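#structure-requests
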Amino acid sequence: MSTVYRAVDETLQRLVAVKVMNREVADDSDHLERFRREARAVAQLSHPNVVGVIDAGEDGGHPYIVFEFIEGETLKQRVRRVGRLPIPEAVAYAIEIARALGAAHARQIVHRDVKPQNVLIDQEGTAKVTDFGIARSLEEEGLTDDGRVLGTTDYVSPEQALGKSVSGQSDLYSLGIVLYEMLTGELPFSAETQVGVAMKHVSEQLPDLRSKRPEASAALAAIVDTATAKHVEERYADDQELIADLETLLALEAQRAGSVTGEATTVMASLPRRTRRRVPLMIRHRRTMGVLGIVLVLAVAGVALWLSSRAHHGSGIPHGKVARRVPLCGSCATAYNPDGIGGTEQDNSQAHLAVDGNPNTGWSTQDYYTGQLDKPGVGIYVSPTRATPVSAIVIDTSTPRFHARIYGSDSRPLATSFAQSDWRPLDSGTTIVSGERVRLTGADRKYSYLLVWITKLPPGGNYAVIDEIKLYS
């Protein structure tokens, strides 16, 4: 469709990249409009992880777009050169790509060709998404009707392979395949024809990540599985859900490894404060030099955490809303496995860890090796220091995307029966994303007990962990 040249901006004396539409397709009105659409799409985006457009126009019948010039290599070249990327580096690149797609999706632009060939890694190691050549705005009539497939089949989503309508979730599927390739050094599907590859995206399950990369955590495998779910309703709902899980995972990987290098270091500095609290201080501040610098960093971090705990920043409560933290009884947390179904749940010696104020400790369910609960549910309930209305709950977890419902009760629950206890539903059920606020109904009603009732384990996981429960009035 086009040729890209390295050129010099003679006015500002800087290198640029100029994409010139090839003459043999310039007379095709569809190709010409698609080329112009790319210029319009990228011109709307100003993001550090998107290759920026500088100018566009036509010269002598040759349509062109001028981009910033990125000195470096494509992500595909990097994977071919290095092989399997270090896990923190792969996760960091996935975060940057997801952030770029999030900026596009916020403007109703779907990329539709997310692949490592369209991700440039600059000399500082930053990932930048490019080539919106077949991007489609959801707000305008598309150039392609349903039934025609555009995109690269190695990374194509099932709905795109079938010629159905696409959305931002289609881009997230492709990103999930890119993440799989970064982690394993290979593509998940191969066939004799491109149609064969596309049909495998439609009908075959992704090869198990942990069999290809044994050191990958169950949480990482769950993220890949959720991003690449065949059915859209089982996939991440939007970029922010995926980014939140990836950011939490990056912090946990840093905590597990004790150190990170490369782009993971840069991305680590951009994590939300709540997520960065999981990262060891020496990693968070590895650029700080000298004993005095370390002492100052520790002091500032301590003050920041103290202020954070007092102001409840990172609680999931939006700025501008007056939300008071409901104090919880530090010893009043109880693991709840009524009816004795499915054996004994983790005992109460762990339950207090869900309300101890430390996000690095938590309560865990037992292991369910089939990946499925063998009972209607299991959970943990907590008690405010006094009965009080609760309008929101925030759950910190290192195993995100388990499904739970929140219940309230005026009277002590019966250990032998869920049905006969006075539990009243306060929400309709939600997928738990660490640190996100869950709105509760009946905010004017006072409850003595609040129950987090887990009904489904996280995708690919055998157990669920609740690191911290926070209630707000």
